[in-house]
Amino acid sequence: MRLVFAPGDDQGYAGARDRLLDAFGTWARRRRVSADVFLVAAALDYKYALDHRLGRWTRAHVADALGMWFPRHVTVLDADEVPEAFHALIDFLGDHDGLDARSASRAELHAQVLDSTPALLDGIADERNYDLGKFWGVQLRRHGVDPADPRAVQRFLDRARSGEVDIDRAALAEITRREEQAPRRQVPAPELPPVLLPSAADMVTAAGESVALDLLRRLTVWVRAGRRLTRDGRLTLPDALALADLLGLDQLYRDSARRSTDLPETSLMLHWAKAARLVRPVHGRLVPVKSATKDLHRPIELWRRVFGSVGRIGDHLGGTDVFGAPSLFGMSLADAFPILWLELYAAGGGPIPVELFHRLVREAVNDSCGCVVDDLAGDAEGRLWRRDVTALLDALELLGAVELGELLDTEELDALVELAGRDDPDPTIVTLTPMGLWAVHETLIDQGLHAPLPGELADEDIEYVCVRMADVRAAVAEAELDAWVAARSQVEAADELSRFLARTDDPVHRDLALHALARTGATGLAAAKRFRSAPTEVPRGDGRWDGELQLS
User: What domain range includes position 399?
Assistant: First the structure.
């Protein structure tokens, strides 16, 4: 019996609700309880929409559901049946150990149902409290119109608008005014998973091994007292060739270069150094930025400085091919760049296919332009786009922020074709390195987003922890579960875990709970072995958590 869900898991909730209602029906028959299952389902829908926790009910929740939500959204044939359904749901959850530790007691919840019933009856009796959907649903039922017949519904609506049908027009006007004046729903901040961050020693090592950092440091030192620039602000060809030789770049382009921009790798590093504010042009010369000098000898600070500058490289990602102009991606890089980080971070560091990034950024550019860019730009813009994305990822790999790989599995490649909408998708997958995870974590914190670390869920009920840990890496899940066990006595932890295992029907949640139970001492370890070996009808499934349960 599943009671907690991740945001957006509508499909998982729909299946769990059906199983819950079946179990409720069996319980009601055995207890000889009369309750409308439709109204019980509506109460579960209210709680799912509110906080995705079907087993957490306080007096405030009951008061809001009965006093506001049911009158506004639910078409009720007999208002007196709603309190009966709530009383039955409370007892059902209580009998099945479904009310979590932060719920009010059964007695308090039953008392609140009684206290809120007058407000429920008054709200249902006044059509001004309805939303538009419920208002018209009630009118259809009242006038004997089948809501499943679209032609009959349209005829009825036309007659209502022309005044041929008697409806409460004052109530309709009040409902319309209220909904037009209602503030737009804010898009909720993403609920990010916890991640494991590298130690300071590991960060120093990673920064010291960064190829891009080494190149940018050597470039900055090479500039020294300044290098002369051409009238259009570029390095002279001799200086550009000398820099390419120093950095070991542009081996294929040196002999044919006629100007500094013919050295694409050197030009990119130079633009990157400017974006990171390591060097800058002053009065026709390229000079080091004095305030950045101290960071050259502080690897972590220099790494983060360079990482934060990638979004400012802009239209300097392109190469020397015939598509030399910047793409819409390059020109929108500062806006597109955070999309990649958030998608990678939300996946616990990855991996994600680069085709997903292509799609998300393309949708963002379409939104900002107010049109479908691909339809206007055609294949040329698509090639520019992919060139710039490849250059961006190569730069990030050079920095040590990401690792690049390829999908090889046939089924995954078939799914990639569908995702990309083309027969030749890019098989590249992107994963954040530990250093990249740390940098994105710092960026999210600076933006005011909540980016949790393992241990922050230690005070939550175990099902909520399992839901949050089902889609993260094994090391993160194990760290969070170990912290959860450590936050309470072994007896308390083992008791809550055993009760959860007795009712959960989710195979991934079961494995996570067994891992935690095995950490509660000898008694818990023995109990975990019994749960593991006991026959169960719970199907095994594939979850994101891929850890192996250690019972010895």
Answer: 328-437
